[in-house]
Design brief:
By secondary structure, this protein is α+β, with helices and mostly antiparallel strands. It has two helices and eight strands.
């Protein structure tokens, strides 16, 4: 059985031309009810100037070189002791290039990273694999509040990540007092229910 399909172009249609012209408006047609007077204005007070390049230079000098804290994977309840030591902090425009050493549960490795002096966003990239801790190659610690609180962004979809909390003082840090995110979330949920 043969099937024949034919495709014919549509019949041309004629579109009628309209020749109506609208009359042009003249200045007399606009009615102005009131006269608008434009006066100059001046801002009073001080204007704070923010220079992120200058801030990057200052931060590179004042950045604490040793940070201590804890790392907790999202899929485990186990806190791990972390020590972060910056060996280099080089300002490049409004960014600061960081290099140093990270120690997680006495497993040491190198890292590199960048701190944005405009937004305090921080990215730390471990150069050594810590597979046993769930820190696989290609992942990074991302922080939106500088080095205070960072999350592990894994390169693998099956790794839920974790959280890294760092403090400036290594002497006063106690691992048993490390911040527990899950208990904090439960407290906030119950307190928000009380407010309702």
């Amino acid at each position: 059985m043969d099937i024949w399909l034919a495709n014919e172009p549509p019949a041309p249609q004629v579109i009628p031309m309209t020749t109506q012209e609208k009359p042009l408006l003249k200045d007399e047609d606009f009615i102005i009810d009131e006269v608008i007077e434009i006066k100059p204005f001046f801002l009073e007070g001080s204007v704070e100037e923010f220079d992120p390049v200058r801030r990057a230079i200052d931060l590179a000098k004042k950045l604490p070189r040793n940070l201590c804290g804890s790392y907790q994977p999202f899929d485990r309840q186990q806190n791990k002791k972390v020590t972060l030591t910056y060996s280099e902090a080089i300002p490049i425009g409004h960014m600061i290039k960081l290099k140093g050493e990270i120690s997680i549960n006495n497993s040491k490795g190198l890292f590199t990273g960048f701190l944005n002096a405009k937004s305090d966003q921080l990215e730390l990239i471990p150069l050594t694999n810590h597979i046993d801790l769930g820190l696989d190659k290609g992942g990074a610690f991302i922080g939106l509040q500088g080095a205070n609180l960072l999350t592990w962004k894994s390169s693998r979809l099956d790794n839920p990540g974790g959280r890294l909390e760092l403090k400036e003082s290594c002497d006063s840090f106690n691992l048993s007092e490390a911040f527990n995110f899950r208990s904090f979330r439960r407290v906030n949920e119950t307190s928000s229910l009380k407010l309702l």
